[in-house]
Design a protein that fits this description.
This protein has 17 helices and no strands. The chain is an all-alpha fold.
Length: 378
Amino acid sequence: MNTTATKQTYNALTLLRALAGVMIVFHHANADCIPTLPEVGGVFSWGMWRLRNVGWTAVDLFFVLSGFFFALSVVQRLDMDRFDLQDYYRKRASRIIPTYYVLITVLALCGTGIVFGGESGLSPWIGFPVYFSFLHNYLATGVCGPVWFLGVIVHAYLFFPLFFTALKCRTKQSLSSQTGRLTGIVLVGSILARTIWYFLGPYGPNHFMFSHFRMDALFIGIFVFFSIRENSQWVLSVRKHTGPSAIVCLAVISVAMFCERDTAYMFTVGYSLMALAYGGLIVLLTQERADKESTRLTWLFPLAEWSYGIYLWHWYLIRMFPNSYETFFLWIASVTCGGVLSTLLQIGAFTLISLLVGVASTQLIEKPAARLFFLRSN
């Protein structure tokens, strides 16, 4: 049985995770986060905003990568005969929860409407407990920002280990053999559920955040891992036809240039197709050649380490410090006098600020929390 999937370094996927973080920031580089951004017409504007629109698909990429690395962590523990649920939950919690709880605490102290009513649609007394318990992606009827993603991820991390344990999939063979069938069932079920909900149910603009509508992407990531691990026939076929496979995957993803995430196409089948396309790219990027080529870009690897902090904080900065934030961007707008140059400089400044906040979050919150977890577990 092939075990190389548990021994690879996955350098290309590290770069893919870094790219996903940048894509999200670029997607949010609009008037919501940069209020002084000038309106620029012509081909430049058309191309800029088409590329920006693709950025939201990075969330689907994060979902697929999360499923992939979840499967990897399960198999690694099985290989060492120590699949400990308690240890698994502690480790996941130490990675996700500290930064998130600091974020919502800061948002609450700053009096933003994200936590205490207003934008989120939650009443002041219920907002904090809802966010604290990761139920905001279901209960927030207004804007809650990028943290909706964490609601889905936490629900998945709670569900998947229990799911595999309940199936008594203790051997690597049983995990591999059942994953494909389960992914197919979840994929078809998700598409049918979203289609029925969109056309016959009480569909709302925030329903793309519901965990049960996005689990197919995580299952696709798990399925891709086990398929690569066993050199499945479809994996060999995709890798044999690298060029056409890459074109098909990128074509499916590029539809997002012209299609918002709340359209009928995206909500019904689009999310699943995006996840499948990103799964296909992962199959191509986990080949030995791609892994070696990726080492030439090791200077970008820290972006992947900072990606969680970048993703989590960047959208909320204007809501935390509105006066200072807007003053800074007004200064850039006044110096550049509008136009394309002003647009590029303001997007560049927004990206740089997001990067610096992500670095600070990683160094001041994530890493100390990880060290504390390590000390307590030993």
